[in-house]
Design goal:
alpha/beta; Lysozyme-like; 2 domains; six-stranded mixed β-sheet; two-stranded antiparallel sheet; 8 strands; binds zinc ion
Length: 250
């Protein structure tokens, strides 16, 4: 599904990916005019590294009016949604399939908070970076090949995002793009069914039996959720959720 115009869905698709989102007042109307058909995402680092980096991204600098990117990615993995219109983030450069020197009108810019030495990324931030890119690319019907580091695009000598191997980054983004689209296979469904049969056995009609089966041996009369030793102390629901996560992230 391609998209032409301002990405007014940015906050929604990030939230649907399970990401934390802060919507800044007026973001849907902020920008230097309207976006055209969206071709991809450009990844940046702010170069500041502090909690107020977003202010420059939103308001601009003396030499360049804001907004300077659509999104700011904080160190804890939270996305700030700054703008839906055109942002001055890409500058001059080129990438296959994108109009040369004109990427601002066709790409979403993400500024990730970092001092820019390539060593201060947090695990939460890198995880959210990939998931955010995947969510956007999936929404605009593009693959990870259109997830581009500023230094890869720029003909002006940009170095951001520092310390990120963009080829490895793209491989992981592609896995994330594909994951949400793929229904569970019959084999995966059977794996879960067998798991349930394997340790539950037949569940009796007594509500206390059901409670014990779900919550662990000893739960029946004590009312405590003791978990199952065979499941590493987890309840059935927690164990199933664990399996599901592992199946989906393969
Ligand atoms: Zn940049």
């Amino acid at each position: 599904m391609s998209w032409t115009g301002d990405p007014v869905w940015l906050a929604d698709v990030l939230r649907e990916e399970g990401l934390r989102v802060i919507e800044h007042d007026g973001w849907r109307n902020r920008g230097h005019g309207d976006m055209r058909d969206l071709r991809g995402v450009v990844c940046h680092h702010t170069g500041g590294g502090g909690a107020s980096d977003w202010e420059t991204v939103q308001n601009g600098r003396p030499d360049l009016p804001g907004p300077l990117a659509h999104l700011v990615l904080e160190k804890d993995g939270t996305y700030r949604v700054i703008a839906a219109g055109v942002c001055w983030h890409a500058g001059r450069g080129s990438w296959p399939g994108w109009p040369t020197n004109d990427a601002n009108y066709y790409t979403i810019g993400i500024e990730a908070v970092s001092v820019g030495n390539g060593r201060d990324w947090t695990a939460a931030q890198l995880d959210a970076y990939k998931r955010g890119c995947a969510a956007i690319l999936r929404r605009i019907g593009r693959g990870s090949g259109d997830c581009v580091g500023h230094w890869e695009y720029s003909s002006e000598g940009k170095k951001d995002p520092a310390g990120i191997d963009m080829n490895a980054f793209r491989r992981e983004v592609q896995v994330l793009i594909d994951r949400k689209d793929a229904p569970m296979s019959a084999a995966e469904v059977k794996q879960i069914q067998d798991f349930i049969k394997g340790f539950c056995g037949p569940i009796g009609s007594d509500a206390k039996d059901i409670r014990e089966q779900l919550c662990g041996q000893g739960s029946r009369d004590s009312g405590q959720f003791t978990g199952w030793r065979q499941l590493g102390g987890k309840s059935v629901v927690d164990a199933l959720a664990d399996i599901r996560n592992r199946v989906l992230s393969r």
